[in-house]
Fold this protein.
Amino acid sequence: MKDYLVRGLVNSKNCRVFACSTTHLVDEARKHHGLWPTASAALGRMMSASLMMDAMNKNNEKQTITINGGGPIGTMMTVCQGNGKIKGFVGNPEVHYTYNDTGHLAVGVAVGKEGTLQVIRDMGLKEPFCGTVPLQTGEIGDDFSYYFMASEQTPSVVSVGVLVEETNEVIASGGFIIQLLPEATEEDISYIEDKMKDFPPISSLIHEGKTPEEVLKMIFEDVEITETRDLFFECDCSKEKMSNALSTIGVKELEDMINEDHGCEITCQFCNNKYQFSEEDLKNIVDKIKHGQD
């Protein structure tokens, strides 16, 4: 099954819904970053939630989400552009913990909960929108649910999950979000709460071959799908962008690289692609800076 996302409405229960399958893009991220299983699960959950949140934005605005809970995984970041493409990384990819009682991947331990979840949306205005909330559990789904309630006053169910094979391969990843509309009644809330009590893990459903639409129809028979969007792990880095970044560090630092190292290598933190700059490349950047100062 390809990676894609659906959004829909459930008029009978006064809510809007989102669901996604992200198995391939999360495994792509694993390969790029050399993620260990718990790191794959943490970044995968965050990617699924980020993509669904991105689908809530009407304009193709840039959305950057950062989580740092003080745990061994360090800072986690995802960036979406409103077009189904996502890039992301974790500070420490070599993290693997499991819970003793269940054997499940211990994402909360890896992420920690002494920190924040921050959402920045660049809508092309003078100042980007920024919302920050304290982490609740570090398990990602709970933290996004709290963000929607605290920052956007929208009661939400957020379910995200990742299954990782013993070979480290990601074999299932996805999620769903249910958001109550202002017209929601106590009956609507009770219906959703009852449905969620024994609802299977989303990663298990994706692994069984359930589509995002089928997952939503297990909860709401009358869900109306209003949009479908293909999803990809894709980084927009380039040698030109890295060259622009180098031009910001100053002439002296660049001349030190030329004289001492005779070039440099830059690694993109989002996809681990490496870019080589020769002595000649660096001299050209220095010339451009000097001419710009004339």
